[in-house]
Design brief:
about 375 residues, alpha/beta, Alpha-Beta Plaits, Rossmann fold, 10-stranded mixed β-sheet, 3-stranded antiparallel β-sheet, 13 helices, 13 strands, about 20% strand, globular
Length: about 375
Protein backbone atom coordinates (compact mmCIF):
# COMPACT_ATOMS: atom_id res chain seq x y z
CA UNK A 1 0.00 0.00 0.00
CA UNK A 2 1.29 3.48 -0.84
CA UNK A 3 2.45 5.53 2.11
CA UNK A 4 0.11 8.27 3.26
CA UNK A 5 0.86 11.70 1.86
CA UNK A 6 0.31 14.82 3.97
CA UNK A 7 0.46 18.56 3.35
CA UNK A 8 3.40 20.22 5.07
CA UNK A 9 2.61 23.79 4.04
CA UNK A 10 0.43 25.97 1.82
CA UNK A 11 2.44 28.84 0.33
CA UNK A 12 2.82 31.16 -2.61
CA UNK A 13 4.28 29.48 -5.68
CA UNK A 14 7.79 30.92 -5.30
CA UNK A 15 8.00 30.10 -1.59
CA UNK A 16 6.66 26.61 -2.26
CA UNK A 17 9.45 26.12 -4.80
CA UNK A 18 12.08 27.27 -2.32
CA UNK A 19 10.76 25.04 0.46
CA UNK A 20 10.68 22.07 -1.93
CA UNK A 21 14.30 22.74 -2.87
CA UNK A 22 15.37 22.79 0.79
CA UNK A 23 13.51 19.54 1.48
CA UNK A 24 15.03 17.77 -1.52
CA UNK A 25 18.46 19.03 -0.56
CA UNK A 26 18.00 17.15 2.70
CA UNK A 27 16.85 13.97 0.99
CA UNK A 28 13.12 14.38 1.61
CA UNK A 29 10.88 13.53 -1.32
CA UNK A 30 8.21 16.17 -1.89
CA UNK A 31 5.99 17.62 -4.57
CA UNK A 32 3.66 20.57 -5.09
CA UNK A 33 -0.07 20.56 -5.83
CA UNK A 34 -2.66 23.24 -6.68
CA UNK A 35 -0.09 24.79 -9.02
CA UNK A 36 -2.76 25.28 -11.66
CA UNK A 37 -4.79 27.47 -9.32
CA UNK A 38 -2.01 30.00 -8.71
CA UNK A 39 -3.94 32.94 -10.13
CA UNK A 40 -7.10 32.12 -8.22
CA UNK A 41 -5.35 31.26 -4.98
CA UNK A 42 -1.96 33.01 -4.58
CA UNK A 43 -1.23 31.36 -1.25
CA UNK A 44 -2.64 27.95 -2.02
CA UNK A 45 0.23 25.92 -3.51
CA UNK A 46 0.60 22.86 -1.29
CA UNK A 47 3.94 21.23 -0.49
CA UNK A 48 3.30 17.54 0.21
CA UNK A 49 5.51 14.90 1.79
CA UNK A 50 5.40 11.31 3.01
CA UNK A 51 3.96 11.13 6.51
CA UNK A 52 7.06 9.28 7.75
CA UNK A 53 9.18 12.34 6.86
CA UNK A 54 7.05 14.81 8.81
CA UNK A 55 9.28 15.24 11.87
CA UNK A 56 12.42 16.00 9.83
CA UNK A 57 10.51 18.04 7.25
CA UNK A 58 8.81 20.15 9.91
CA UNK A 59 12.20 21.13 11.37
CA UNK A 60 13.36 22.19 7.91
CA UNK A 61 10.14 24.15 7.45
CA UNK A 62 10.79 25.97 10.74
CA UNK A 63 14.27 26.91 9.48
CA UNK A 64 12.78 27.91 6.13
CA UNK A 65 10.36 30.36 7.71
CA UNK A 66 13.29 32.20 9.25
CA UNK A 67 15.59 31.84 6.24
CA UNK A 68 16.71 35.09 4.68
CA UNK A 69 19.82 36.35 2.96
CA UNK A 70 22.48 33.66 2.46
CA UNK A 71 20.30 30.70 3.43
CA UNK A 72 17.56 31.77 1.09
CA UNK A 73 20.10 32.23 -1.71
CA UNK A 74 21.37 28.70 -1.09
CA UNK A 75 17.86 27.39 -1.63
CA UNK A 76 17.53 29.39 -4.85
CA UNK A 77 20.86 28.07 -6.15
CA UNK A 78 19.92 24.50 -5.28
CA UNK A 79 16.54 24.88 -6.97
CA UNK A 80 18.36 25.86 -10.15
CA UNK A 81 20.93 23.07 -9.79
CA UNK A 82 18.33 20.31 -9.71
CA UNK A 83 17.25 21.42 -13.16
CA UNK A 84 20.70 20.80 -14.62
CA UNK A 85 20.87 18.42 -17.57
CA UNK A 86 23.92 16.23 -18.13
CA UNK A 87 24.46 15.09 -21.72
CA UNK A 88 27.20 12.48 -22.28
CA UNK A 89 28.50 12.77 -25.85
CA UNK A 90 30.86 10.78 -28.05
CA UNK A 91 30.47 12.98 -31.17
CA UNK A 92 28.31 10.46 -33.00
CA UNK A 93 25.11 11.60 -34.67
CA UNK A 94 22.87 10.04 -32.01
CA UNK A 95 24.70 11.74 -29.13
CA UNK A 96 24.48 15.16 -30.79
CA UNK A 97 20.83 14.44 -31.53
CA UNK A 98 20.29 13.89 -27.79
CA UNK A 99 22.05 17.17 -27.02
CA UNK A 100 19.60 19.12 -29.18
CA UNK A 101 16.67 17.32 -27.55
CA UNK A 102 18.10 18.30 -24.15
CA UNK A 103 18.26 21.91 -25.35
CA UNK A 104 14.53 21.95 -26.05
CA UNK A 105 13.82 20.64 -22.56
CA UNK A 106 16.23 23.14 -21.03
CA UNK A 107 14.50 26.00 -22.85
CA UNK A 108 11.26 25.17 -21.01
CA UNK A 109 12.85 24.30 -17.67
CA UNK A 110 15.31 27.25 -17.72
CA UNK A 111 18.09 24.84 -16.91
CA UNK A 112 21.77 24.51 -17.75
CA UNK A 113 23.29 21.87 -20.01
CA UNK A 114 26.66 20.25 -19.49
CA UNK A 115 28.19 18.19 -22.30
CA UNK A 116 30.47 15.44 -20.99
CA UNK A 117 32.97 13.33 -22.88
CA UNK A 118 35.06 10.61 -21.29
CA UNK A 119 38.03 8.78 -22.74
CA UNK A 120 40.28 5.99 -21.59
CA UNK A 121 43.74 6.96 -20.40
CA UNK A 122 46.31 5.56 -22.89
CA UNK A 123 48.61 4.85 -19.96
CA UNK A 124 46.14 2.24 -18.70
CA UNK A 125 45.66 0.62 -22.13
CA UNK A 126 48.69 1.71 -24.18
CA UNK A 127 48.61 -1.08 -26.74
CA UNK A 128 45.63 0.18 -28.71
CA UNK A 129 46.93 3.71 -28.78
CA UNK A 130 50.44 2.69 -29.74
CA UNK A 131 49.02 0.94 -32.80
CA UNK A 132 47.52 4.24 -33.96
CA UNK A 133 50.51 6.31 -32.89
CA UNK A 134 53.25 3.85 -33.67
CA UNK A 135 55.58 6.60 -34.73
CA UNK A 136 55.27 8.33 -31.36
CA UNK A 137 57.13 7.16 -28.31
CA UNK A 138 55.94 9.86 -25.94
CA UNK A 139 52.56 8.86 -24.46
CA UNK A 140 52.27 12.25 -22.76
CA UNK A 141 52.17 13.80 -26.20
CA UNK A 142 49.52 11.27 -27.29
CA UNK A 143 47.36 12.18 -24.30
CA UNK A 144 47.79 15.87 -24.97
CA UNK A 145 46.71 15.45 -28.59
CA UNK A 146 43.65 13.42 -27.59
CA UNK A 147 42.61 16.04 -25.04
CA UNK A 148 43.12 18.92 -27.48
CA UNK A 149 41.14 17.23 -30.25
CA UNK A 150 38.33 16.28 -27.86
CA UNK A 151 38.16 19.77 -26.36
CA UNK A 152 37.91 21.22 -29.86
CA UNK A 153 35.06 18.83 -30.66
CA UNK A 154 33.27 19.69 -27.41
CA UNK A 155 33.72 23.38 -28.05
CA UNK A 156 32.31 23.00 -31.57
CA UNK A 157 29.26 21.09 -30.32
CA UNK A 158 28.66 23.66 -27.57
CA UNK A 159 28.86 26.42 -30.21
CA UNK A 160 26.19 24.68 -32.31
CA UNK A 161 23.88 24.57 -29.30
CA UNK A 162 24.60 28.21 -28.51
CA UNK A 163 23.80 29.15 -32.10
CA UNK A 164 20.42 27.46 -31.70
CA UNK A 165 19.88 29.34 -28.42
CA UNK A 166 20.61 32.61 -30.19
CA UNK A 167 18.49 31.72 -33.22
CA UNK A 168 15.44 30.79 -31.13
CA UNK A 169 16.08 33.58 -28.60
CA UNK A 170 16.13 31.14 -25.71
CA UNK A 171 16.75 32.71 -22.31
CA UNK A 172 17.95 31.22 -19.03
CA UNK A 173 19.97 28.36 -20.58
CA UNK A 174 23.75 28.06 -20.30
CA UNK A 175 25.85 25.47 -22.12
CA UNK A 176 29.19 24.22 -20.83
CA UNK A 177 31.33 21.12 -21.29
CA UNK A 178 33.92 18.98 -19.59
CA UNK A 179 36.34 16.21 -20.47
CA UNK A 180 37.29 13.39 -18.10
CA UNK A 181 39.53 10.35 -18.27
CA UNK A 182 38.25 6.89 -17.52
CA UNK A 183 35.77 4.22 -18.43
CA UNK A 184 32.65 5.89 -19.88
CA UNK A 185 30.10 4.36 -17.51
CA UNK A 186 32.14 4.96 -14.37
CA UNK A 187 33.05 8.47 -15.50
CA UNK A 188 29.43 9.42 -16.16
CA UNK A 189 28.21 7.97 -12.87
CA UNK A 190 30.98 9.66 -10.87
CA UNK A 191 30.34 12.96 -12.62
CA UNK A 192 26.64 12.62 -11.88
CA UNK A 193 27.39 12.29 -8.18
CA UNK A 194 29.48 15.47 -8.25
CA UNK A 195 27.51 17.62 -10.68
CA UNK A 196 24.11 16.47 -9.33
CA UNK A 197 22.02 17.02 -12.46
CA UNK A 198 18.25 16.74 -12.43
CA UNK A 199 18.42 14.31 -15.34
CA UNK A 200 20.71 12.67 -17.88
CA UNK A 201 19.87 12.80 -21.59
CA UNK A 202 21.59 10.26 -23.86
CA UNK A 203 21.29 9.09 -27.45
CA UNK A 204 20.66 5.51 -28.53
CA UNK A 205 22.33 3.58 -31.29
CA UNK A 206 19.11 2.84 -33.15
CA UNK A 207 17.58 -0.47 -34.15
CA UNK A 208 20.57 -2.22 -35.67
CA UNK A 209 20.90 -4.30 -32.50
CA UNK A 210 18.20 -6.15 -30.63
CA UNK A 211 16.59 -5.46 -27.31
CA UNK A 212 18.35 -3.54 -24.60
CA UNK A 213 21.57 -3.68 -26.64
CA UNK A 214 19.96 -1.20 -29.01
CA UNK A 215 20.69 1.51 -26.46
CA UNK A 216 24.39 0.90 -26.74
CA UNK A 217 26.26 -0.64 -23.83
CA UNK A 218 27.02 2.71 -22.18
CA UNK A 219 23.47 4.05 -22.32
CA UNK A 220 22.10 0.71 -21.13
CA UNK A 221 24.44 0.69 -18.13
CA UNK A 222 23.62 4.29 -17.23
CA UNK A 223 19.89 3.51 -17.39
CA UNK A 224 20.44 0.63 -14.97
CA UNK A 225 22.81 2.36 -12.54
CA UNK A 226 22.23 6.12 -12.48
CA UNK A 227 20.48 7.62 -9.46
CA UNK A 228 18.69 10.32 -11.49
CA UNK A 229 16.12 10.00 -14.29
CA UNK A 230 17.54 9.16 -17.71
CA UNK A 231 16.03 10.12 -21.06
CA UNK A 232 17.11 7.91 -23.97
CA UNK A 233 16.60 9.57 -27.35
CA UNK A 234 16.31 7.14 -30.30
CA UNK A 235 18.67 7.63 -33.20
CA UNK A 236 15.80 8.11 -35.64
CA UNK A 237 14.15 10.84 -33.59
CA UNK A 238 14.29 14.33 -35.11
CA UNK A 239 15.65 16.34 -32.18
CA UNK A 240 16.18 19.40 -34.36
CA UNK A 241 12.40 19.71 -34.68
CA UNK A 242 11.30 17.96 -31.49
CA UNK A 243 7.92 17.59 -29.87
CA UNK A 244 7.94 18.61 -26.24
CA UNK A 245 6.52 16.00 -23.83
CA UNK A 246 2.95 17.27 -23.95
CA UNK A 247 1.47 13.77 -24.04
CA UNK A 248 3.22 11.26 -21.80
CA UNK A 249 2.61 7.54 -21.53
CA UNK A 250 3.48 5.95 -18.18
CA UNK A 251 3.48 2.16 -18.35
CA UNK A 252 2.77 0.52 -15.00
CA UNK A 253 3.17 -3.08 -13.94
CA UNK A 254 1.48 -2.43 -10.56
CA UNK A 255 4.50 -2.17 -8.31
CA UNK A 256 4.61 -0.08 -5.12
CA UNK A 257 7.45 1.97 -6.59
CA UNK A 258 5.02 3.30 -9.20
CA UNK A 259 3.64 5.78 -6.67
CA UNK A 260 6.99 7.46 -6.17
CA UNK A 261 7.71 7.41 -9.91
CA UNK A 262 4.33 8.96 -10.71
CA UNK A 263 4.88 11.74 -8.17
CA UNK A 264 8.20 12.54 -9.80
CA UNK A 265 6.69 12.28 -13.27
CA UNK A 266 3.92 14.74 -12.41
CA UNK A 267 6.53 17.21 -11.12
CA UNK A 268 8.66 16.73 -14.24
CA UNK A 269 5.85 17.42 -16.73
CA UNK A 270 4.28 20.37 -14.91
CA UNK A 271 6.29 23.00 -16.86
CA UNK A 272 5.11 21.42 -20.13
CA UNK A 273 1.41 21.40 -19.18
CA UNK A 274 1.37 17.74 -20.18
CA UNK A 275 -1.33 15.11 -20.15
CA UNK A 276 -0.34 11.76 -18.64
CA UNK A 277 -1.72 8.44 -19.80
CA UNK A 278 -1.16 5.78 -17.13
CA UNK A 279 -1.82 2.33 -18.55
CA UNK A 280 -1.22 -1.31 -17.81
CA UNK A 281 -0.84 -3.60 -20.82
CA UNK A 282 -2.59 -6.91 -20.22
CA UNK A 283 -2.73 -10.05 -22.31
CA UNK A 284 -5.98 -11.06 -20.59
CA UNK A 285 -9.37 -9.82 -21.77
CA UNK A 286 -10.41 -9.11 -18.20
CA UNK A 287 -8.61 -9.42 -14.90
CA UNK A 288 -10.27 -8.19 -11.70
CA UNK A 289 -6.88 -7.82 -10.01
CA UNK A 290 -5.68 -5.46 -12.78
CA UNK A 291 -8.88 -3.42 -12.54
CA UNK A 292 -8.55 -3.11 -8.75
CA UNK A 293 -4.90 -2.08 -8.93
CA UNK A 294 -5.55 0.50 -11.61
CA UNK A 295 -8.37 1.99 -9.54
CA UNK A 296 -5.95 2.38 -6.62
CA UNK A 297 -3.51 4.26 -8.81
CA UNK A 298 -6.24 6.42 -10.31
CA UNK A 299 -7.65 7.34 -6.89
CA UNK A 300 -4.17 8.08 -5.60
CA UNK A 301 -3.37 10.38 -8.50
CA UNK A 302 -6.59 12.36 -8.30
CA UNK A 303 -6.87 12.57 -4.51
CA UNK A 304 -3.22 12.88 -3.46
CA UNK A 305 -1.18 14.33 -6.30
CA UNK A 306 -3.94 16.56 -7.66
CA UNK A 307 -3.09 15.56 -11.22
CA UNK A 308 -5.91 17.03 -13.26
CA UNK A 309 -4.70 16.02 -16.73
CA UNK A 310 -4.37 12.27 -16.41
CA UNK A 311 -6.11 9.28 -17.94
CA UNK A 312 -5.78 5.77 -16.50
CA UNK A 313 -6.81 2.44 -17.93
CA UNK A 314 -6.10 -1.15 -18.86
CA UNK A 315 -4.86 -1.84 -22.38
CA UNK A 316 -6.10 -5.30 -23.37
CA UNK A 317 -4.04 -6.66 -26.22
CA UNK A 318 -2.98 -10.00 -27.66
CA UNK A 319 0.39 -8.58 -28.64
CA UNK A 320 2.24 -6.31 -26.23
CA UNK A 321 4.35 -4.56 -28.84
CA UNK A 322 1.56 -4.00 -31.32
CA UNK A 323 -0.86 -2.85 -28.62
CA UNK A 324 1.53 -0.26 -27.21
CA UNK A 325 2.57 0.93 -30.67
CA UNK A 326 -1.05 1.47 -31.66
CA UNK A 327 -1.70 3.33 -28.39
CA UNK A 328 1.34 5.56 -28.93
CA UNK A 329 0.21 6.36 -32.47
CA UNK A 330 -3.46 6.81 -31.63
CA UNK A 331 -2.84 9.11 -28.66
CA UNK A 332 0.10 10.88 -30.32
CA UNK A 333 2.39 10.12 -27.38
CA UNK A 334 5.56 12.23 -27.20
CA UNK A 335 7.51 10.28 -24.59
CA UNK A 336 7.25 6.90 -22.87
CA UNK A 337 7.95 6.85 -19.12
CA UNK A 338 8.73 3.74 -17.08
CA UNK A 339 10.30 2.90 -13.76
CA UNK A 340 13.00 0.27 -13.22
CA UNK A 341 12.17 -2.47 -10.77
CA UNK A 342 12.01 -6.22 -10.84
CA UNK A 343 9.50 -7.62 -13.31
CA UNK A 344 8.78 -4.12 -14.54
CA UNK A 345 7.20 -3.24 -17.85
CA UNK A 346 10.60 -1.92 -18.90
CA UNK A 347 12.20 -5.33 -18.41
CA UNK A 348 9.31 -7.16 -20.02
CA UNK A 349 9.86 -5.15 -23.19
CA UNK A 350 13.21 -6.84 -23.65
CA UNK A 351 12.30 -10.44 -22.83
CA UNK A 352 12.76 -12.85 -25.75
CA UNK A 353 8.99 -13.37 -26.06
CA UNK A 354 8.40 -9.66 -26.71
CA UNK A 355 9.31 -7.81 -29.88
CA UNK A 356 12.70 -6.34 -29.12
CA UNK A 357 12.79 -3.25 -31.31
CA UNK A 358 9.61 -1.61 -30.03
CA UNK A 359 11.13 1.62 -28.76
CA UNK A 360 13.01 2.33 -31.92
CA UNK A 361 10.14 1.57 -34.23
CA UNK A 362 8.04 4.16 -32.42
CA UNK A 363 10.85 6.74 -32.53
CA UNK A 364 9.90 8.45 -29.28
CA UNK A 365 12.19 9.17 -26.33
CA UNK A 366 12.15 6.95 -23.25
CA UNK A 367 12.15 8.48 -19.75
CA UNK A 368 13.37 6.04 -17.08
CA UNK A 369 12.82 6.67 -13.38
CA UNK A 370 14.67 4.54 -10.88
CA UNK A 371 12.64 2.68 -8.32
CA UNK A 372 12.46 4.12 -4.83
CA UNK A 373 11.08 2.15 -1.88
Amino acid sequence: MAEEIITLASLTYMRAQLLSAMLERNGIECFMTNINQIKESPGGVNVKINQSDFEQANKIFDDFRGAYGFKKQQAVEYMRSIRRILVPVDFTYHSENAAFYALQLAAELKSDILLLNSYLDPLSTPQSYLESYAYQLNLDQVITEIEEETNQSLDAMADRLKEMIKKKKIKGVNVSYDLVKGNSVDAILNYTNEYKPGMIVMGTRGSELEGLKSFGSVTADIIKKASVPVIAVPKGYDAYNPKLPKRVLYATNFNETDYSALRRLVSFVKPFNSKIFCIHASLDDYDSFNETQMKKIKDYLFETIDAYKIECGILNTYDLQQGIEMFVEDKEIDILAVTTHKKSFFQRLFEPSVAKQFLFQTHIPLLVFHARP
